[in-house]
Specification:
The complex is a heterodimer. By secondary structure, chain A is mainly α. Chain A is built from six helices and no strands. In chain A, helix 1 runs parallel beside helix 6 and helix 5 packs antiparallel against helix 6. The termini of chain A are far apart. Helices cover 67% and strands 0% of the residues of chain B. The chains are: A mainly alpha, B mainly alpha. At the A-B interface, helix 1 and helix 5 of A face helix 7 and helix 8 of B.
């Protein structure tokens, strides 16, 4: 681009190669990125918020049907997935720390560990979905309900929300895995150092957010009334 | 004097030629031009559907179109005008072009995301065009369930997905603006030196970021119901269609403020320039933008007074809806006070401002009629509502957009347009608009419902007036296309500051260089430092 001379900073020394032309300093660039990411996560909260709103309303109206629907979910797989996802948040946090301390090999190892755990989560989700298909718990004309007949139509609402919420969550994880593939490649190419690791940190923020959504989904969907 | 003005040798328009230099550009000014071209195309497409509506309504019988075709006409007019023209209009074109130079920055914080937002917008637009080509959609722009999710046999899914996709473009633009305004201001450009245009866009961006995701998820819920047979809003399975309306209006009411707030920002800039005065009560006007953004989020249920919500909820939402009038009135009174004893002139941009002030006043005050529970029951879903929101969205938002476009056009292309034709066009728009929509207030009050292609004979005179007005309005919208295009080659060279305006954007060349300023400005003045003509002339003597 033109007028490269404009971008020579006040200190006169050459700039970090990752500094974009319209920012004055790495500090400014990073602050802008972080603020942008948090705003994006805010939109994500409102995105899922619409579903949580619908969930809250129908759970209040049709509590018994939500209990019946929730009992159809497999507590073992749900709990396992919660543990897997929390574990992946730990490895993601370690990846960010490793990038911050310019430890390239550890960053790559931790990103790969996060991706493996994320894939395990999705695999478990496939097992669960497949089971629901097999027993006919997919809302719509083919819905099969063997429990209390009076609750059947409202249980469909529960499963409509279950599939929409967990499906969108899974979609976010798939996108996250895609982003991590890119970040892994960039790490391997040696793009990051202690001064510039913002993309790793942003990916971490995104991954933790997706994790937190699950932390809410798990009790709301699996644990409606498990104490009896 | 004008002979000595020359276009700068290097500017953003000649920095790179060919299609690729435009389609892969990261320059906010070029992206603004890309938006300008695409939203103008959608504006005239949406206008074409309006022509169909007004044509059908010239006679009481249904004679031009089948009822189903008519349903598709008003649906597509609404969908295209709201989601593909009005929402992106001022922010994506004027905001995109002007916010960086106004705050002394080289670009928006995220240039690549800015370009991405345009591509997302185009993708959403292609979905909508696809829906039109394969037969259209007839749900109304509001997509109310269960009609949209279960009953309608038209192309709801591609249209809704188009709206969903375009929403992300809007989110990214808003996000980019917020970060830019926080992090990219030139040294010395403090918050209270920012032009009110920037404040208005900050408030708009907050709504875009907080509201749009909610309509996105709402569309997803309609989508899974229609595509997979899920039943989130299906009354047969205990789902609640009114929940859809709550979620839809949680975005779509604030969306009106996405349209009007940037227009208000434009008005503040223009009114001070053409009355040669500081905007009266700067901080009140700035904070009233934020107040409108906040209040705008807590009034949505006034769209549902007759949808079966509880009477207590209706009372609360009625009261809150009245409260939006306060910050709106703060702005209107402050603009009027700015005019007072100003050195007023009558250039085309300022004609749009005068038009805006009158039309926004009518649109705003009739909004209070609709916020009143008893009156709303009488005029709900009548042409009174149609007239009201057109006074805000066309009389307010589009007048602001056109005023802004005329004001900054010499900055954007470096040349002036025909002064005579532009004044004619501003007058045509004002007269045509009033002739089109004022009769609709009367029609609505007399009881003519919206969204019907036939009506009783006694409504014909007013409907013919409305259709005639639409023809005048259309002419007023076509004229600028002609003289703007003419100006590209043949217009007089404008020079950096043809209006004698005070903002930072007028300190750089027209058209500006790619990096906006040859040198980043360091002496940032207070906003709107004007010397009235009278005083200045006295000094000259």
């Amino acid at each position: 681009m033109s007028d490269a001379a404009v971008h020579t900073g006040a200190h006169g020394h050459a700039h970090h190669p990752a500094l974009q032309h319209h920012f004055d300093t790495m500090q400014q660039q990073k602050e802008a990125g972080v603020l942008g990411m948090w705003l994006f996560l805010l939109t994500e909260i409102l995105f899922f918020g619409g579903l949580f709103m619908a969930y809250t309303l129908y759970r209040i109206w049709y509590y018994d049907a939500f209990v019946a629907g929730s009992l159809e979910l497999d507590l073992f797989w749900g709990t396992l997935n919660t543990a897997v996802l929390i574990g992946s948040s730990l490895t993601m946090a370690l990846a960010v720390r490793a990038a911050q301390t310019s430890n390239r090999n550890l960053t790559m190892a931790m990103i790969i560990a996060t991706m493996v755990l994320g894939t395990v989560f999705l695999g478990v989700k496939v097992i669960e979905y497949e089971h629901k298909f097999a027993v006919g718990l997919i809302p719509g004309p083919g819905f099969v309900w063997h429990g209390n007949e009076a609750l059947g139509r409202n249980v469909q609402l529960f499963f409509s929300l279950y599939f929409t919420m967990t499906g969108l969550h899974a979609l976010h994880m798939i996108i996250g895995l895609g982003i991590m593939t890119v970040i892994l490649w960039m790490t391997w190419k040696g793009r990051f150092d202690a001064e510039y690791y913002a993309p790793v940190e942003m990916t971490g923020l995104y991954w933790h957010f997706v994790d937190i959504v699950w932390i809410y989904l798990f009790p709301l969907l699996y644990l409606v009334e498990r104490h009896n | 004097m004008l002979d000595t003005l020359k276009l700068p040798e290097r500017h953003y328009l000649n920095n790179g030629h060919g299609l690729k230099s435009w389609l892969l550009t990261k320059d906010h000014k070029r992206i603004a031009i890309l938006y300008l071209i695409s939203i103008s195309a959608f504006f005239f497409l949406g206008g074409l559907f309006a022509v169909g509506i007004r044509l059908e309504l010239t006679t009481p019988q249904g004679d031009f179109f089948q009822p189903d075709t008519y349903n598709k006409m008003f649906t597509l007019h609404g969908v295209i005008m709201v989601f593909f023209f009005l929402i992106p209009s001022i922010p994506a074109v004027l905001g995109n072009f002007l916010i960086p130079p106004m705050i002394g920055a080289k670009d928006l914080a995220f240039p690549r995301i800015n370009l991405l937002s345009w591509y997302i917008y185009v993708l959403g637009g292609l979905f909508a065009l696809f829906a039109i080509l394969v037969g259209g959609v007839d749900t109304g722009w509001t997509f109310y369930t269960p009609y949209s999710s279960a009953a309608s046999n038209t192309n709801v899914i591609p249209t809704a997905l188009g709206v969903f996709i375009a929403g992300f473009s809007s989110i990214l633009t808003g996000l980019n603006f917020i970060v830019t305004i926080h992090r990219m201001r030139a040294p010395g450009m403090t918050w209270f030196k920012l032009p009110l245009f920037v404040w208005a866009h900050y408030a708009t961006s907050l709504i875009q970021v907080l509201g749009t995701p909610v309509v996105a998820i709402t569309i997803i819920m309609v989508f899974v119901e229609r595509a997979f047979g899920f039943g989130i809003f299906d009354p047969q399975r205990g789902g609640d269609p009114v929940l859809f309306q709550h979620l839809f209006w949680f975005y779509s009411h604030p969306a009106v403020y996405i349209m009007i707030l940037p227009a208000m920002g434009v008005i503040s800039e223009l009114i001070s320039t053409f009355s040669r005065k500081k905007v009266f009560g700067y901080s009140f006007v700035a904070f009233s933008s934020l107040a409108i953004a906040v209040f705008g989020f807590i009034v949505w249920a006034h769209h549902m007074f007759v949808a079966g919500i509880s009477v207590y909820a209706a009372m609360v939402f009625s009261f809150l809806s009245f409260s939006v009038a306060i910050p709106s009135a703060v702005k209107t009174f402050n603009w009027t006070a700015t005019l007072y004893k100003g050195s007023l002139t009558f250039e085309a941009p300022m004609l749009y401002v005068y038009g805006f002030l009158g039309l926004f006043l009518v649109g705003g005050l009739t909004g209070l009629f609709l916020a009143t529970l008893g009156v709303d029951v009488h005029v709900h879903d009548t042409y009174f509502v149609v007239a009201h929101f057109h006074y805000i969205m066309v009389g307010g938002a589009i007048m602001g957009y056109l005023g802004g476009l005329h004001f900054w056009w010499p900055k954007i292309v470096g040349r002036m347009y025909s002064e005579f034709l532009s004044r004619i066009s501003a007058i045509l728009v004002f007269v045509g608009f009033n002739l089109t929509f004022f009769p609709q207030f009367v029609l609505g009050y007399m009881g003519m419902p919206r969204r019907y292609h036939m009506y009783p004979d006694e409504f014909q005179v007013l409907n013919v007036m409305s259709s005639a007005g639409a023809a005048v309005l259309g002419l007023g919208y076509l004229l600028p296309v002609i003289y703007f295009l003419w100006s590209l080659k043949h217009g007089e060279v404008a020079g950096p500051n043809p209006w004698g305006a005070s903002g930072l954007e007028w300190r750089t060349a027209s058209p500006p260089p790619t990096e906006n300023f040859a040198e980043v400005p360091t002496d940032i003045p207070e906003a709107y430092e004007y010397t009235p003509h009278v005083v200045r002339e006295a000094k000259l003597v």
